[in-house]
Amino acid sequence: MKTVDQISFAGKKALIRVDFNVPLDENYNITDDNRMTAALPTIKKILKDGGKVILMSHLGRPKGGPEEKYSLKHLIPHLSDLLGQQVEFADDCIGQEAIDKSKELEKGEVLLLENLRFYKEEEKGDVAFAEKLSKLGDVYVNDAFGTAHRAHASTAVIAQFFPEAKVFGYLMAAELNNAEKILNGAAKPFTAIMGGSKVSDKIELIEKLLDKVDNLIIGGGMAYTFAKADGGNIGTSLVEADKLDLAISLKQKAKDKGVKLYLPVDNVIADAFANDAKTGVAKTGEIPDNWMGLDIGPETVKLFSKVVEESKTILWNGPMGVFEMETFLVGTKAVAEAVVAATEKGAFSLIGGGDSAAAVAKFNLTADVSYVSTGGGALLEYMEGKELPGVKAIND
Ligand code: AMP
C-alpha cells in the first residue's frame, strides 16, 4: 500500500483530500470534530517533513454554487487550534487566488481551500476540474475514506495527474487495514451485528457476511421485517412490506450456511414515536395494534450480549433501536457495552461509521473498541467486496 510514509515531503506541496464534512450548528460551531482529528496524523507527518499542506474537502450538500452555510471558512479557527498554527484560507478551490496562495505557502504552512462542491464538476468527476485542482500540489494524498466510494473529481479522477506521486494518508491506510482484518482472517467466533432502519440498505453486506460469520445478530428497525415475515404482529413498527420474501430467504441462507441468526425475542414498544411516549415490553410477533417497537427488549439484550461477549471478531453496523431518544437507547448501549467487554477480553471490534459510530461516541465508548470507522457508505461498499474508486485511483 502506497502511503505518506513512502514520501519525504520536504519542500513539496501536498494536496490532501480530506473529509471535513463535519456537522455544524446554526452558529457554525462544529458539533463533532472526529473527521478533522482523524486527518491530523497525516497533516502533521507532512508538516514535520518540512512539507506544505493544501487541504481540500466538501462540506454539506451545496446546490452547485457558493453558500455561506457550507463555507469551509467556518472550520479555520478550530483547525488552527488543532494544529497549533494559523491555517490560511483560499475563497475558491480553483482559480487565481488558490494558485497564488498555494505558491506562496512556506514550508510547514497549511492552506485550506473553499468547498469543492461549490462546483458541480466535483461530483460529476469532471476531468478538466480535476486537472485544475491538480495544479495546486506536487503530491496527491487521499485521506478521505468517507468519500472513497465516490468517483468524484477530487477523490478519484484527480489521481491520474499524479502518476508517480499519489498515496494514501494514514486514515485511509488504517481504515483499509482494519476492514481487511474483518474480511480476511477474522478470528472465530466472528459475529456481525446489523441494525438500523432498513434491511434493504444492508442486504448486500448481510449476504456477503453469511459466508464469513458464525453469528449474525439483527436488531433495530430492520428486525420487524423479519417478525412480519414470520407472520407476527408488529403493530405500527417500521417495516419494508416488499422485503418479506427477502427476510425469509435470508433466514434460509443463514441456516444453509450454518450461520446462527439471532433476532430479537422481545421489544421495547411505544404508543408514539416520541421520547415521552407510553412504553412497554412485548414479545416479538406480539406487538399490539397501534404500538411500535423502538428498541430491543431486556431478554434480547441478555441474548445478544452473551453472543457478543463470547466473540473474537465483531463487526457492528446500525443501532438496535432509536438511540437518539433517551427512552430507546438502552438496547444499543447494552450491545455497545458487550462489544467493549469482548474487546477487553482480546476480541477485535470494528464499528461501522454513521449511526453506529455516533452511538458509540454518545456512550463515550469510542476509545474502548478496537476501531471506529469514519466511513458509513464507504465501509459498507468495501465490505460488500466492491472496489472503491478512491482506493483504485491510488492503486492503479
Ligand atoms: P441506518 O441509517 O439504516 O443505519 O438506520 C439508523 C436509524 O435507524 C437511526 O436513526 C435509528 O433511530 C433508526 N432505528 C433503529 N431502530 C429503529 C426502530 N425500531 N424503529 C425506527 N427506527 C429505528
From TrEMBL:
Catalytic activity: (2R)-3-phosphoglycerate + ATP = (2R)-3-phospho-glyceroyl phosphate + ADP
Subcellular location: Cytoplasm
InterPro entries documented for this protein: Phosphoglycerate_kinase, Phosphoglycerate_kinase_N, Phosphoglycerate_kinase_sf
The UniProt record lists the keyword ATP-binding: yes
Sequence positions that bind substrate: D19, F20, N21, R35, H58, L59, G60, R61, R117, R150
Pathway the protein acts in: Carbohydrate degradation; glycolysis; pyruvate from D-glyceraldehyde 3-phosphate: step 2/5
GO MF annotation: an example: phosphoglycerate kinase activity
Keywords tagged on the record: ATP-binding, Cytoplasm, Glycolysis, Kinase, Nucleotide-binding, Transferase
Annotated binding of ATP, by residue: K202, G293, E324, G353, G354, D355, S356
Domain of life, per lineage: Bacteria
EC number: 2.7.2.3
Classification via Pfam families: PGK
Metal-binding keyword on record: no
CDD domains reported for this sequence: Phosphoglycerate_kinase
Protein family membership: Belongs to the phosphoglycerate kinase family.
Quaternary structure and interacting proteins, as annotated: Monomer.
PANTHER family reported in the protein's UniProt record: PHOSPHOGLYCERATE KINASE, PHOSPHOGLYCERATE KINASE 1, CHLOROPLASTIC-RELATED
Protein name: Phosphoglycerate kinase
Gene of this entry: pgk
